[in-house]
């Protein structure tokens, strides 16, 4: 799938569940306007559908349903320890969408949720208000594409555009928009503000086509990156997670070399690298969803509740990728 509109053609959501509280929200109406043929089902609360018992994540991934809801409680959360903060003291994340349209074999979301259905919280203005309250205390570094790929949904939500515009009027807010999509064209006409970072996760073609089902391949992502760079956007590239598979070194060397053949190194703000790591509890659930996964069959070590590769493999992979990257960019730009 190159992006949501081209590949799903907006028809996969045969059923859309809408909370009564969300019905009159403008974002709800805008989203529903893309799904003229879908069955609209009114519900009291999204949890009645999303968290119901005896769901099959793997089966639902073939035909996910859409749920439109209003979120209550906290909107902003402290950044996770397993995630890179890039030197930002006040690191947070927010999730306006639960679950992702892509089906990456290693994705932690299948260990978090029992449902593959997608929830979009339509009350985005409430999130903005909480961010503004936080900004009164100190600067904020905020990841907005944490539990989803927000840019992949841009055709139907417009949320990425709104976040960029919001950042444009709050200079002490820095946002990261992480994506595997090839959807830059949805935001290419927007002003590239200095406090907005477009962060692409890149994987070798051999890995993306096998283990990142539904996501655009390496070449498609690279084309979006080139367009973003030529338009003046801040660019972050993430080689994360690096997967320990047969011929991994050959794949990642080719991936990195081709990346820098296409993108001038001086146009890259920074680079993130990291090997596969996952909560022990999440991994246990993921193996139940995908018991024959090659990616998940590795004999992971457990440290502080997090599963990752054995030290010898971890060090070999990080050193290999780091040394390749350091040929192209200053070491200060590489975050591990």
From TrEMBL:
<dbReference type="GO" id="GO:0051539">
    <property type="term" value="F:4 iron, 4 sulfur cluster binding"/>
</dbReference>
<dbReference type="InterPro" id="IPR058240">
    <property type="entry name" value="rSAM_sf"/>
</dbReference>
<dbReference type="GO" id="GO:1904047">
    <property type="term" value="F:S-adenosyl-L-methionine binding"/>
</dbReference>
<dbReference type="GO" id="GO:0003913">
    <property type="term" value="F:DNA photolyase activity"/>
</dbReference>
<dbReference type="Pfam" id="PF20903">
    <property type="entry name" value="SPL"/>
</dbReference>
<dbReference type="GO" id="GO:0042601">
    <property type="term" value="C:endospore-forming forespore"/>
</dbReference>
<protein>
    <submittedName>
        <fullName>Spore photoproduct lyase</fullName>
        <ecNumber>4.1.99.-</ecNumber>
    </submittedName>
</protein>
<dbReference type="InterPro" id="IPR049539">
    <property type="entry name" value="SPL"/>
</dbReference>
<keyword id="KW-0456">Lyase</keyword>
């Amino acid at each position: 799938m190159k992006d949501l509109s081209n590949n799903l053609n907006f028809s996969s959501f045969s059923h859309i569940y809408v909370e009564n509280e969300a019905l009159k929200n403008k974002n709800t109406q805008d989203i529903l306007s893309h799904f003229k043929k879908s069955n609209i089902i009114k519900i009291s609360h999204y949890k009645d559908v999303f968290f119901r018992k005896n769901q099959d994540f793997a089966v639902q991934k073939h035909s996910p349903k859409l749920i439109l809801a209003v979120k209550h409680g906290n909107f902003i959360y402290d950044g996770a320890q397993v995630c890179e903060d890039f030197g930002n003291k006040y690191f947070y994340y927010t999730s306006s969408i639960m679950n992702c349209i892509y089906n990456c074999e290693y994705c932690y979301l299948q260990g978090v949720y029992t449902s593959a259905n997608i929830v979009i919280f339509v009350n985005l203005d409430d999130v903005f208000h909480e961010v503004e309250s936080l900004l009164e205390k100190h600067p904020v570094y905020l990841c907005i594409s944490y539990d989803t790929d927000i840019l992949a949904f841009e055709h139907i939500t417009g949320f990425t555009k709104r976040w960029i515009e919001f950042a444009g009027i709050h200079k002490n807010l820095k946002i990261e928009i992480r994506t595997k999509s090839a959807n830059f064209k949805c935001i290419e006409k927007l002003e590239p503000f200095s406090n907005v970072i477009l962060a692409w996760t890149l994987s070798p073609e051999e890995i993306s086509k096998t283990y990142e089902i539904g996501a655009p391949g390496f070449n498609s992502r690279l084309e979006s990156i080139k367009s973003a760079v030529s338009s003046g956007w801040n660019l972050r590239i993430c080689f994360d997670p690096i997967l320990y598979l047969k011929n991994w070194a050959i794949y990642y060397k080719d991936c990195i070399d081709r990346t820098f053949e296409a993108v001038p190194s001086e146009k890259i703000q920074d680079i993130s690298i990291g090997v596969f790591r996952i909560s022990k509890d999440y991994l246990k659930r993921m193996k139940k969803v995908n018991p024959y996964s090659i990616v998940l069959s590795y004999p992971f070590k457990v440290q502080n509740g997090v599963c990752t590769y054995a030290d010898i493999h971890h060090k070999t992979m990080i050193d290999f990728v780091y040394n390749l990257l350091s040929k192209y960019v200053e070491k200060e730009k590489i975050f591990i």
